[in-house]
């Protein structure tokens, strides 16, 4: 019996299936319809019946399902759009597979993993790639962390009998110590223990922790030294900014380079520019003294400033940067006093924080030689001695200062005369150790010129009396120093009871101080 005969046997069935006109809960129709074995085995008939059922169940998608299913055997390859979609889908599958391969290659067994999830191009209708997708989260088991947090009971142990385990158990403590290594600084490499049940003893963990803290402090010190301090022949960013501002303002024409380095400062040579004010003349060549912002040397030299009555009230041991700025300000005040008294010394141009600009003692970028490096004739050596003796008396009586570090290293020979430099540590005679500093200066000067062959050079005790006018009589150096200490003690008691002795200089006429 053919399909035409089947359709003719049921003329009243209507266009739809027979069960649509009856109640779905009714008794099934027992009418049997005979058909041949060929019709039952016909694949085309099965597809047509399936389409009819889908059209009846989902009428809104009839237009989409009008044609036959697209399978690997009956794809219409004549459509360019279909070919392009198939090629794009295949390319996306290969691209996603390459991304997953890169993830596995980079991550390996590391605890921290990366994911290329945002770069994948999986289409929503691509069901094959969904099976191979990997979640971006790292779901691997951490052997150092329990699946569920376990709390230690108050009694301090768990288990009974031979299976008792305390909080001091070697295995438990070892795993805890291994997990605590994650709290070390990121710069400290602790390795990767994934996949290994590591157990660190307390001794090893404490040694590693101490080493990690030491490395962290050392790294902080190196960073501080690099970013916030002046090094040999170099300046920190803040100091460099100050120098740039001086050049941009026209105060300095150009900075040529470093001419001297010391324990406390670095000196640069520069060519002077134009001053903003008419009454201030900038010399053609300048010396820029940059005080080092490291405190290694200033820690041992704070006695020069904390007991100085001019800066005693402003001294603060808790603020190191202020101490260094105060040190530069102190040299500016001392140079101004010496300049007003007519003592050969550098002329102060300007002070900005810890940068002091002075006139350059020398010519054509060549600094004047120190007294220890120059070879003088006997006449010039004798002339230099009497000049220094006169300058020491002027410092003490007219400037009310003691150099406190006077030696052949801080005296320059230029234009046939001696110039004094480096007076940042100079103090007043009323300083608790002012007379001791003066006696040390006298010893340095006397020994240098006696070795230089100056027969008229006085010894340290005679030079001290000639400079100070105290006329201390002592047979030996020990008694002489004892007299000096007694005078300092008497002077300190007088200052504490009656206040600071009035200085003969009420105003230094100091240049302007700029503190930005």
CATH superfamily of the domain at 369-503: Transferase(Phosphotransferase) domain 1
Q: CATH first level of the domain at 369-503: which class?
A: Mainly Alpha
Count the E strands.
Answer: 12
- The H-and-E topology, N to C, reads as HHHHEEHHHEEEHHEEEEHEEHHHE
Strand order of the largest sheet: 3-4-5-7-6-12
Low-confidence stretches: 1-14, 60-71, 124-140, 501-516
What value does the Rg take, in angstroms?
A: 48 Å
For this structure, the CATH topology of the domain at 369-503 is Transferase(Phosphotransferase), domain 1
Q: Based on helices, strands and strand pairing, what is the structural class?
A: alpha+beta
Biggest sheet character:
6 strands, mixed
Which CATH architecture of the domain at 369-503? Orthogonal Bundle
Whole-number mean pLDDT: 76
Number of helices: 13
Characterization of the model:
By secondary structure, the protein is α+β, with helices and mostly antiparallel strands. The protein has helices spanning 3-9, 37-40, 43-57, 80-107, 170-180, 202-228, 237-248, 303-306, 320-340, 378-397, 434-451, 460-468, 477-498; strands spanning 157-158, 165-166, 252-261, 265-272, 285-291, 348-352, 355-359, 362-363, 366-367, 411-414, 417-420, 513-514. The strands form four sheets. Strands 3-4-5-7-6-12 form a six-stranded mixed beta sheet, with helices on both faces. A two-stranded antiparallel sheet has the order 1-2. Helix 11 (434-451) crosses helix 12 (460-468). It catalyses: L-seryl-[protein] + ATP = O-phospho-L-seryl-[protein] + ADP + H(+); L-threonyl-[protein] + ATP = O-phospho-L-threonyl-[protein] + ADP + H(+). It is an enzyme of class 2 (transferase).
